Amino acid sequence: MINDAAVRVALHAVLADGPIPEEDIGRLGDFSFQPSPDRVHLRISLIWERKAKTGAVLTEASGIWQVLVYAPEGAQVDAVESLALSLGLLYEPYVDGPQLADMVRITDVQTLTAVDGQDRPANDGTPGLCWVVVPLQVDFRMELIPDGIV
Question: For residue 138, what are the β-bridge partners?
Answer without folding.
Answer: 65, 109
